[in-house]
């Protein structure tokens, strides 16, 4: 066992909820994980149960088996579980440097905890963590599938969905960060009644309903926060397993329900990332047409390419040019006012030669320029009461925004979320692009959103 310096939160339920012996624990985990057969998903967040392993271990393993292929990419786990021992009004950090299990010590991410510590709903409360099992039982599973990672552990008491969402939003990160919410379902109902209630609860989770209560899920407070953020960020829920203790190791007179769910981020339509032949061919045609339009203007040889019927219909496109990952031009249309093929060719030429931020593209630059084409959906006006309400509705990585006030107008494609992942930053920079102050607000501010299909040439 590797020991960490500093304050260690020792295991509280080793020997009761799971084996205290490292070899026995590792062997039991391997049995559960080897038996689990989850679908091939890349989860950003998980909901998994926290009972003794003999009862909930097989269900939890269905979620954790998804992580084995991510061992080299997930480096941080944000783990939230409900308070069973010491009540807190919001969310509690442990005031420790590491958490210990029989399999070793897990370092806590001090920088991440410092990021959320100023929030009014977050406190440091070692007592809330000292005997709490809702976080601890997940740690050996995470150690078994991820190996080395850092941890942000939070005990959740009476926090509102918005308060939990705000914390998760700050810690969201990229593919290196995994969110885990700990919760069981119904408690001590007869088997048939539990199955019916748990099915209703899971159905609510699948439609991202944020009104769950403790009788449905003991982790309702952190679950509701995740579901609220999942709705805003466009995550897709997947039910992996739904059973209860009567199915695993207990009698059926009084059972506890368990579910495992995974939440995946939206799949971007990217030519370099898709294996779908039709999508790949569509992306290749669009990017080749855009490149040919630029090459012809530079005096080079164009290309004779097909123009299928779908390109003759009205469409709105953006063409983005990059060199070594740096922007070299980006021009597009927000509304479909001409055939998509015409819009594409004109915007390709405009991005290369008429973007006022850059000099016209030179012929010797074209071989080193990467072409990306985005097809925009129709923009939909958003309804909101104030800026906080607007920010809550934004879906990072999904929404492109059009902001308008008087003669000021600006747009950001969804791709801009990669540089500005926080909604507040995204909106502030968009205001500045539109010629407004970053803190500008007016009741008649107009915001519309759209999505894109994105196709990019291979690097």
Structure, described:
- The chain has 459 residues and is α+β, with helices and mostly antiparallel strands.
- It folds into 3 domains: 8-264, LigB-like (Protocatechuate 4,5-dioxygenase, Chain B); 277-377, Hypothetical protein ph0010, domain 1 (Glycoprotein, Type 4 Pilin, 2-Layer Sandwich), CATH 3.30.700; 380-454, Hypothetical protein ph0010, domain 2 (Dna Ligase, domain 1, 2-Layer Sandwich).
- The protein has 15 helices and 20 strands.
- Strands 2, 3, 4, 7, 8, 9, 10, 11 and 12 form a 9-stranded mixed β-sheet that branches. A 4-stranded antiparallel β-sheet has the order 14-13-15-20. Strands 16-19-17-18 form a 4-stranded antiparallel β-sheet, with helices on one face.
- A hairpin with a 2-residue loop joins strand 5 and strand 6 (104-107).
- It is elongated.
Q: Helices and strands in order, then pairings?
A:
Elements (H helix, E strand, L loop, with lengths): L7 E2 L12 H14 L9 E4 L4 H12 L11 E7 L8 E3 L4 E4 L2 E4 L2 H7 L5 E3 L1 H5 L2 H4 L1 H9 L3 E7 L4 H11 L5 E6 L4 E3 L1 H16 L13 H14 L2 E9 H4 L6 E10 L12 H21 L11 H4 L3 E8 L2 E7 L7 H14 L16 E7 L3 E2 L5 H7 L6 E6 L2 E5 L10 H11 L12 E5 L1 E5 L3
Parallel strand pairs: 1-5, 2-9, 3-8, 3-9, 4-7
Antiparallel strand pairs: 2-12, 4-8, 5-6, 10-12, 11-12, 13-14, 13-15, 15-20, 16-19, 17-18, 17-19
Helix pairs in contact: 1-2, 7-9, 11-13
């Amino acid at each position: 066992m590797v020991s960490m310096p500093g304050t260690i939160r020792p295991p509280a339920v080793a020997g009761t909820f799971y084996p205290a012996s490292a070899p026995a624990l590792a062997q039991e985990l391997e049995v559960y994980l080897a038996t689990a057969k989850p679908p091939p998903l890349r989860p950003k967040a998980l909901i998994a149960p926290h009972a003794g392993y003999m009862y909930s271990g097989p269900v939890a393993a269905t979620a954790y088996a998804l992580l084995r292929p991510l061992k080299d990419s997930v480096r941080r786990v944000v783990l939230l579980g409900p308070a069973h021992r010491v009540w807190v009004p919001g969310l509690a950090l442990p005031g420790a440097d590491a958490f210990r299990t029989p399999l070793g010590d897990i370092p806590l991410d001090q920088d991440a905890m410092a990021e959320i510590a100023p929030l009014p709903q977050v406190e440091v409360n070692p007592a809330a963590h000292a005997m709490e099992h809702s976080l601890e039982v997940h740690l050996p599973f995470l150690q078994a599938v991820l190996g080395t990672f850092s941890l942000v552990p939070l005990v959740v008491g009476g926090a509102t969905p918005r308060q939990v969402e705000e914390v998760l939003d700050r810690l969201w990160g990229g593919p290196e960060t995994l969110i885990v919410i700990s919760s069981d379902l119904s408690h001590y109902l007869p088997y048939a009644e539990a199955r019916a209630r748990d099915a209703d609860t899971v159905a609510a989770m699948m439609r991202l309903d944020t009104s769950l209560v403790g009788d449905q899920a003991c982790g309702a407070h952190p679950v509701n926060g995740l579901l609220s953020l999942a709705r805003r960020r466009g995550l897709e829920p997947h039910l992996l397993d739904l059973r209860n203790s009567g199915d695993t190791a207990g009698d059926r007179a009084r059972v506890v329900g368990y579910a495992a769910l995974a939440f995946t981020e939206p799949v971007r339509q990217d030519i370099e990332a898709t294996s779908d032949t039709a999508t790949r061919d569509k992306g290749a045609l669009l990017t080749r047409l855009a490149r040919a339009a630029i090459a012809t203007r530079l005096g080079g040889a164009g290309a004779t390419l097909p123009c299928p019927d779908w390109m003759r219909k009205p469409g709105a496109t953006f063409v983005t040019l990059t060199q070594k990952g740096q922007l070299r031009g980006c021009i597009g249309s927000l509304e479909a006012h001409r055939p998509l093929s015409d819009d594409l060719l004109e915007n390709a030429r405009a991005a290369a030669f008429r973007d006022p931020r850059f000099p016209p593209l030179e012929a010797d630059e074209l071989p080193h320029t990467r072409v990306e084409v985005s097809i925009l959906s129709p923009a939909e006006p958003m309804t909101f009461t104030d800026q906080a309400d607007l920010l809550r509705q934004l879906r990072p990585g999904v929404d492109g925004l059009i902001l308008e006030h008087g003669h000021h107008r600006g747009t950001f494609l969804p791709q801009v979320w990669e540089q500005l992942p926080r909604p507040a930053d995204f909106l502030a920079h968009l205001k500045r692009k539109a010629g407004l102050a970053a803190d500008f607000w007016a009741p008649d501010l107009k915001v519309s959103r759209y999505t894109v299909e994105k196709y990019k040439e291979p690097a």
